[in-house]
Structure formats: C-alpha cells, structure tokens
Amino acid sequence: MNNKKIYTIVSSVLFMSASVIAQEKEANLGTETVEVVRAYDATISDAFKIKETPDLEGDTDNKKKEVIYRINSFPVASTFIPEKGKAAEVEKGSQLKAFNNYILFGAGNYTNLNGELFLSGQLDESSYVAGFLSHFSTQGGVSGLLLDDDYSKTEGALIYGGQKQNFGWNAKVGGMYQTANWYGLPLDILDTEITKETLAKINPLHKYNNIYAEAGFEFRNIPFTNLDIHYNHFGDDFSTSENRFWVKPKIKTAFGINVAQLGLVLDYVGTTYKNTGLTTGNMEFTHLNLGVEPSVVLRDEDYSVQLGVGVYYNNGKVAEKTENNIYIYPQVKASYDLVKNIVIAYAGLEGGLKQNSYHSFVEQNPFVSPDLLVAPTDQKYNGYVGMKGKLDHMISYNIKASYTEERDKPLFMLNAWNSVTALKPYQYANSFGVGYYDLRTLNLFGELRFDFEENVSMSIYGEYNNYSTDAEEAWNLPDIKAGADFKFDITDQWFAGVDLYYVGKRKDWYENADLMQSKIVNVKSYADFNLKVGYRPTKNWTVFVKGNNLLNDQYSQWSNFDVQGIQVLGGAMYKFDF
C-alpha cells in the first residue's frame, strides 16, 4: 500500500483544555491528530459536513476510497476527561512532512502531565499495524476544597487493518485506567452535619478500568457490505462489572442508481453493582436490543431520499423484573441541491432505541455513583430541517431546526444527603445519579466556517434548546451553547489558535433528607477562553504552550464541582520514521 502516510496535525491539545470539569463535545478545544491514510476502510469522514446532516449516498461504485484512520491525541477537558472528539486542526497537513510515528510530552501548573506515543508500520502491501499509548494526570488544586481532586487517565490500543481488492478490515484492542474523586461536597452539610472526623474518613477516590475489542469489515461486489463488532468490559473499584456487546451487519444492493439496504442490530448490555449500600445483594440490569432497519434510497443528480423504518425488540431485566417490548420508528431523510454544489436543503424524521450503559454515563460525568439504573432510551422521533452550503469559496454554513421526543431520557441529578445511609464515600451528596424522564426538545442550531487562506480558518457556532419534560426541570441540560475558534499559521514555523465557548445556565435538584428539605439548584452559565501557540524549529520537532481558562473563572459544570483556574501547559512533540 504505497499511499500510506501519517499526517501529524498540531492543534489545540498538545496542550490541555480548560478547567476542572468536562467540556461539552461541541466545545472541543482541538486535538493533535495523527491520520493514517489508507486506500480502503469501513468508515469514511464527510469533509463537507459541518455538523450532523443526512448521509444518503449509497455506495455503488467499485472505486477504492481513500480512507483516514485517525488516532486522536486527546484534549483534556476542564474536568480532565480526555475527549475523543473531532479534530480541530490548527496546523494544516500540507504544512507538515508526513511521519509514521510521534512522541509527545507536556507539563504545567497544578502538576499537570501529558504524554503520548504513537507508532505504526506497514506489514505488507495490503496491511498495517499501529499502536498508541496516552497518559494525562493532574494533582488537582481547586481552591476551597476539603477532599482530594486529583485525576488521571491512561489508555492504549493496538490496531491492525488493511485492504484487499474486494475486502477491507480494521481491528482494534485496547484498555483504559482512570481515576477521579467525588470532591464536590455541598456547603450546607459541611457547615452543620459533617464533622472533621467524618471528613478525615472519606476517601473520595474512584477508579475505573476498561478493556475492549472491536472490528469493522467492508466488502465489495457482494450484497453483504458491512459488519461491525464490538465488545467492551467496564468496571470500577466498587466491584461494578459491565459487559457490552454489539453486532451490526448491513446488506445493500443497487437497482439502477438507487439502493435497497437492510441494517441489523444486536446490542446487549449487562451491568452488575455490588456493595452499593442500597441493597444487601447485587443490583443487576440486562438489556438485549434486536433491531431490523430496512430502507430504500432513491436519488438522481439533484436529490436523495431514504425511506425506511426501524423495528426493535427489547428484552430487559430491571430489579428482577423482566419486560419485553417492541418499538417501531420512522427512518426517513432527504436532501436536495437547491443550487448545485452550493446550497443543499435537507430534512429527516428518525427514531431509534438507544442503549445506555454505566460506561456511557461515566464518559459523560465521572462523578456518578456506582449504583445507576441502566435502561434504554426510546427516541420516538427526531424531526429536523436544515440547509448547508457555501456563501462563497471561503465561507460555508449549516443551519438546522429540530424537534425530538424521547421517553426514558437519562438526566443527571445530585444524589440526596442522608446521614443515616451515608456509608460510602459517594453518599455525601457529592455524586450524581440518573433519573429517567420523558423529554421533548426544540433545538435551533447554526454554524459558520471561514477558510480565508490555506493556513487561516475560523468557525462560529451556537444552539438554543427549549425543553418540555415531566420532571420539574430538564436537569443539567443547558438552554444555550455557543463557541468560536480561530486558527492560523503565522509563518511556516509559528502557528496559533484561540478557542472561546459558552454554556448556559442549568438546573439541578438537591435533597437533604435530614432536614426534610429539597430545592432546585441553579448552576450558573460560564464562558471559557483558551489560547495556544506553537513553534516548529525543525521538520521533526514542534514545541508548544497553551493557556486554558484564561478568564480564571472557577465555574462549575456540575453542581459543587468547581474547575481549576488559569492553566498553562508547555511541551514538545517529536515526529519520526524508523
């Protein structure tokens, strides 16, 4: 495979992100991305997309596709959760010599340490092997805390992939070890109900572990076109054990320029909690989802329409009770070229049965308690209409309005304080549970992207949400999110980037059982400003410095969990070939 290359694109996180609480995915501060460009693989990025838009293109041609396998150098969010989000490039690939390997190290205040290693090699003309290892840790240091707030995450993986004439594959095995602390004690019980002796006995450390294996296959010239397999084991130091397994085959055939396709889904999750303090035995939840998704894609030069339906069967076991349910969802979407290659209108009405898991909850919020109810979310429909395109060759945009109805939507809420049951380190109202509610969401979204030159770009996005729910509030969901980033190469050696994002106010629920009081907690809105600067003294070396949370606002993304103030991290990356 002669066209194998690895591009090292230096971006915002060679240097850490902003404060001490997790940032939203839409507010990704960028990643150092290593892209392995191969002739064929099972997943393909659509470079024209700004955000979610319908992908209605049935793949009927037999030309080999250039596919990018991406290893992200994870940005560290305010809560020090590396986020595997989309890369936000600062340094263009054309500006860099391609290398197959890199090593990176960075250090900053709060004793923040970041290290990464990526290695790859070609086994023969049609296959490759790669591996990566990454680590981030901080000793914490948020002012005013009475409990430890250090954090760490280490992960690694081995990847094997390639392509033959009519067959492509990509397999990956990996693992992760993460630590976090339940440090967010509410002030009212600190003042009146928790003694110094009790505080000294609280060990807020929570350790997570994860191992996984996954594979993707894509076939040509036969109706059986795709197969995705994934297994994930997730656990913690409170003897929680969760196994998740899914298989997703796809069958597709063309008739003329149109396509008939059938997607199948088998998705199982089994979660067992031990020693929760809520029960004398184990808490077990299991859910098996089986889905069938037939559809037809009709298209010509100007339009593409997908007409489909999703039929799901769920076998669920919650608290020793078993239920069986069948769900039917619309899966319809369409796009139309209003002005060829310049303006595209799109719309859709889609639903589905979304599998939740303890692992997915921890990825969103590492301060959850190890006793969460696990159940799938019934997304009745997500209806949307939008338009994307280009105002000229330098400016692209995407605007979308959507309305979504969901049943059993999990929302994070503070766990209650009860001195009688406070036996575990997460039972001092310093952790989060989940409640399941019916939720309707009106969402308005817009984004502009400016590519002034090859080495200068800027993007601005914003969204507004209006919620209707059977809960008192849409707990911990913001009404407004907005952000902007500016990236540019100053010279061939110097580059820089700026990120600014805003998250609107949220509502949480707090209950003090001792005082028989409960109340709605207002979680304030916040803005975060980040700056990064890098320098390439040679083609192999890049040095960088990044400042995060430069507004020095120790805001809370989650109730009582304040973030670090100004953070500065400096380091270097060395790119090389063997």
From TrEMBL:
Highest taxon in the source lineage: Bacteria
Location in or out of the cell: Cell outer membrane
Gene3D superfamilies in the cross-refs: TonB-dependent receptor, beta-barrel domain
Entry's Gene Ontology cellular component terms: cell outer membrane
Species this protein is from: Myroides indicus
Signal sequence region: 1-22
Keyword annotations: Cell outer membrane, Membrane, Signal
Lineage: Bacteria, Pseudomonadati, Bacteroidota, Flavobacteriia, Flavobacteriales
Protein name: Uncharacterized protein
